[in-house]
UniProtKB/TrEMBL annotation:
<dbReference type="InterPro" id="IPR001623">
    <property type="entry name" value="DnaJ_domain"/>
</dbReference>
<dbReference type="InterPro" id="IPR036869">
    <property type="entry name" value="J_dom_sf"/>
</dbReference>
<dbReference type="GO" id="GO:0051082">
    <property type="term" value="F:unfolded protein binding"/>
</dbReference>
<dbReference type="GO" id="GO:0005737">
    <property type="term" value="C:cytoplasm"/>
</dbReference>
<dbReference type="InterPro" id="IPR018253">
    <property type="entry name" value="DnaJ_domain_CS"/>
</dbReference>
<keyword id="KW-0472">Membrane</keyword>
<dbReference type="GO" id="GO:0044183">
    <property type="term" value="F:protein folding chaperone"/>
</dbReference>
<dbReference type="GO" id="GO:0051087">
    <property type="term" value="F:protein-folding chaperone binding"/>
</dbReference>
<feature type="transmembrane region" description="Helical">
    <location>
        <begin position="201"/>
        <end position="221"/>
    </location>
</feature>
<keyword id="KW-1133">Transmembrane helix</keyword>
<dbReference type="Pfam" id="PF00226">
    <property type="entry name" value="DnaJ"/>
</dbReference>
<feature type="domain" description="J">
    <location>
        <begin position="3"/>
        <end position="68"/>
    </location>
</feature>
<keyword id="KW-0812">Transmembrane</keyword>
<protein>
    <submittedName>
        <fullName>DnaJ domain-containing protein</fullName>
    </submittedName>
</protein>
Length: 228
């Protein structure tokens, strides 16, 4: 069951005025017209609207509270929340790069990823980095909460900005790595032993050729002398 109080970022005893303020703030933040009709923001906007419509109505809020508390008592785990997995496919990137994010939690009924907002307890999402901070960092924070025992665990991922100069150096880095590998594992053709064996083989071929040539000359001379 959805937690409307969490959607609006208010407590369960929030006043109607608090709910209105939270709704105005979040509806402006997530409005599709201000976010290029991004699907993620559109979904968050609908969730905020849904939560507001229920909680601002006294009768609907009372009915919701009764159902929500009953469900929470029946299904909530009393174990502390745990983040089993939280990682991205890149830890170094440039502005505009697409990042894929993965996460998996246990015993958590509320999961929030900053800067995106509420998410499923397990899932993945893709996004593009629009900017880094002044130190060239982009940080993601995963908050996994078990509201039954009021426990939250947090895990972070920091993506570092990759400068243009660093990208230009990548082929040179690969070349240096290849050179190092060759130093540790030299090719057979560059081995001194191989070169020595090759010279010895050439010498033997030369000697054999000379011997055969001398034998041929002697044979010819023998036949010439035989004629006289």
């Amino acid at each position: 069951m959805k937690n409307y109080y969490y959607f609006l970022g208010v407590s369960e005893d929030a006043s109607a005025e608090d709910i209105k303020k939270a709704y105005r703030k979040l509806s402006m933040k997530y409005h599709p017209d201000k976010n290029d009709n991004d699907e993620f923001f559109e979904l968050r906007f609908r969730e905020v609207q849904e939560a507001y419509e229920v909680l601002i109505d006294v009768d609907r809020r009372k009915s919701y509270d009764n159902q929500f508390n009953s469900v929470q008592r029946n299904i909530k785990s009393t174990l502390p929340p745990k983040i089993q997995k939280f990682h991205s496919d890149k830890i170094r990137a440039r502005v505009g790069d697409e990042i894929r994010l993965y996460w998996q939690t246990y015993d958590a009924d509320l999961v929030k990823i900053i800067p995106f907002g509420l998410e499923k307890v397990n899932g993945e999402r893709r996004f593009k980095i629009t900017q880094f901070d002044s130190q060239g960092k982009f940080q993601l924070l995963l908050h996994a909460t078990n509201t039954a025992i009021h426990k939250t665990v947090v895990q972070a991922i920091t993506i570092t900005q990759l400068e243009v100069g660093e990208l230009d150096e990548e082929p040179q880095v690969k070349e240096r790595l290849n050179n190092r590998r060759e130093e540790h594992h030299p090719r057979p053709t560059s081995s001194p032993l191989f070169r020595r064996d090759k010279r010895f083989l050439a010498y033997r071929i030369k000697v054999v050729t000379i011997v055969l040539l001398i034998a041929f000359i002697l044979l010819v001379l023998k036949k010439v002398f035989a004629l006289f």
